[in-house]
Amino acid sequence: MDPVIVTLLVILGVGLLLVFGLVGIYNRLVVARNRFKNAFAQIDVQLKRRYDLIPNLIEAVKGYMAHERETLDAVIKARKSAMAAEQNVAANPADPAAMKELNRAEGQLDGTLGRLFALSEAYPDLKANQNMLALQEELTATENKIGFARQAFNDSVMAYNNRREVFPSVMVAGMFGFTEAALLEAAQEEREAPKVSFK
Amino acid sequence: MATDFFEQQDSARGRTVQLVVYFVLGILVLIALVYGLLLVFGQYGAGQPVSWWQPELLLVVAAGVGILVGGASALKVNQLASGGRAVALMMDAVEIPGTTTDPRQKRLLHVVEEMAIAAGVPVPPVYVLNEPGINAFAAGYLPGDAVVAVSQGCLEYLTRDELQGVVAHEFSHILNGDMRLNIRLIGLISGIMVLSIMGRIMMFSGGRRSSRSGGGDSRGGNMMLALGLFALGLVGAFFGRLIQAAVSRQREYLADASAVQFTRNPDGIGGALKKIGGLKEGSRITNPRAAEVGHMFIANAFAGGGFFGLLATHPPLIARIRALDPQFDGQFPEVRPVDVDREEPEGSRPGGVPPTTGGPRLPGLPQVPLPVLGFADATAARVGHIDPEEVSHARALYASIPDPIRVAAQEPFSARALIYALLLDPRAELRNLQLARVKAGATPPDFAETVRLAAPVQALEDRLRLPLLDLAMPALRQMSPRQHETFRGQVEALVNADQRLSLFEYTLRCVLHRHLDAQFLPRRPMGPMQSSAQELASPIAKVLSLLAWEGQPEPELAARAFDTGMRSYIGGDHTYRLLPPSEECSLAEFHAALQTLHQSVPAIKRRIVVACAACIGANQQVSVREAELLRAICDTLDCPLPPLVM
What we know:
The structure holds two protein chains of two kinds. By secondary structure, chain A is mainly α. In chain A, 78% of the residues lie in helices and 0% in strands. Chain A has a single domain (3-175), classed as LemA-like domain (de novo design (two linked rop proteins)), CATH 1.20.1440.20. Chain A has helices spanning 3-62, 69-91, 96-120, 124-128, 130-165, 169-175. The longest helix of chain A has 60 residues, at 3-62. Chain A is rod-shaped and about 95 Å long. By secondary structure, chain B is mainly α. Chain B has three domains: 1-338, no CATH class; 402-509, no CATH class; 534-636. In chain B, 63% of the residues lie in helices and 2% in strands. Chain B has helices spanning 5-46, 55-79, 84-90, 103-119, 152-157, 160-175, 178-213, 216-263, 266-278, 290-293, 317-324, 375-382, 388-400, 403-408, 412-422, 428-441, 444-458, 465-476, 481-495, 503-520, 537-551, 555-570, 587-598, 602-617, 624-636, and strands at residues 94-95, 126-129, 136-139, 147-151. A four-stranded mixed beta sheet of chain B has the order 1-2-4-3. Classes of the chains: A mainly alpha, B mainly alpha. Chains A and B meet through α1 and α5 of A and α1, α2, α3, β1 and α7 of B.
């Protein structure tokens, strides 16, 4: 057999296998990325629900804690910036900078809410108020859901990050701009009542 | 041509064989062409005529193409192993959250939920494709890992009836085994089309490569090679499309007919098809990955039939519309976005559904008459079908589920607690034991949620339990693998209570695992299918025994029921005796028996279904619990049985 043809065949074969392998790796990275993007879409609904509950909470509390303006304003402000951050992440969950900003804003929101609930302890009428109790229960329920969905999201982010770090995927990842994705962090502070701890 | 579910499953396996044959043929042609191309190239390079017969070259080419295409296919099949979700994610589709507030999305979710409950299958997660055209697909291997994806255009332009027609079309694919065939097809086609991808890449990097090999002659040679590869790639793509068309095109008429049969409304799917004709974007999918999955869509995803229409993955639109509406004049309607708010509210359908007998005669489409037979045979005939009465019945079922429970089924955190609650035994002592186990094994929020749902779920009617499980499926499938593992462990702890769990609750757990395992556990190839009825007599005896005791606690009546069922299975006299309740048929044995029975050919499964139905119908009185138990058992056999058994 003509040696030229043989060499060309070998080069061709190796080249094709290489390209083919790269295509396969690329596809898997795309699917892994879409998976965690999808997982965020589930949290998105719950986060928005939580943001929607907060104005109701403010209304319920305002009557009793009118002179705690600072705290109330802090909550409103934190909510606004968290909503903006969340919208950015929802648009692109693969953007680590946007996620970090959301983590920061959410942490702040949790902090202000914590202070609000801590203060509300001093108002027994408020604590017994039916509306307030219902709102707290709804908030807890929403936060439980967020917590669980967050776990699933973080699991899929980690699966993606691991996939893009191993050899040889790491080369494809670099070539096509698959950047490391950031996790959605849990609240640092715990709220007073009701006590819910979740990872 | 009367086809029941079991016959269809059999013929589905035949189609898979056909698919493989086409695939092999395609590879052979490719090998011949590559061989020829290289000979031509060799001739060009050597500058003198080369012998046309070079066995070593042929061997190398055959091996090379075989490995390449085979390897590409294997990799793709492996990538798709996680089921329908992999296909949806590949197409950049986004899952609709169960808690969505978007009215268009909610409307679609309700349509899918009704259809799934009516069919007796778990509700598939619904995805949306970011595409302006009107198109949809269903993907997966089993109902447990199936997904339905719908384009944004469907949400915008289709009425509820038309959406229902599209969804019914997809469900017919899910029920008759096409879905499995289609996903296998993707794997094989990707292999054949891999050359076209390579060729395209080589063509466009051909210029850069020439500088490496040096010399003007080589440059021309390389370009020729790349061109040759590109040409080969076109051939590969041609074969890919040809296979897609050959295997799936005729199925589309059948799916359209089934859609009409399920909804008794030719204007549903017909209206959708007409709107595809009227819409500027039609059914076109812009995502380039549609090339690999074109055959899964409800209508042509790429423009043009090419080559005398041979390459079109679907029959011509007008022909399909005429099959549904012979009066169609070829004028497509003007398509405008649908106002969702002005549509009828959920749950009210004035005008009702036309009576069972009669209905529109659709020329040229297969009719599936439901024979008027005994209860057992009638039950088997209803497997894998959907009646329009069942769709409205499903809507009523759905509305009967109390709000807090329905809301809990919509997202994963509360859905798990819902399952724990569903698996709680009716007897107080065992119940408390189970709750203690949940408290010990689960986090405090999980336990609190379970307790919250325990009372409403206990009050739930029997006829709503299995539908509720089906409804909770999409939310449960959103769990990560790690979360699923924890959940599974918790379920097992609940079920392995010291005293024996009620059969119904236990079977619910079997249904749960069958469907979740389809998604979360790696797919294992099915072992050999049992085709001998005698071999399976022993496991059937166990199942029938438990069924008999469930329906009638008095030993004589139970024995009679068992005997009726066993006779039906064996087809005459038999030597099997009703097994005493505790010793010889424990729940674990029941589960093992179900798994053994699952590994049987469709014809045997039919006998199993008939036998079980005969058993519960033996004493002329079938309780709701018995009927639902039958449905659950059929579910574990992958024979979905609709709710309206009585």
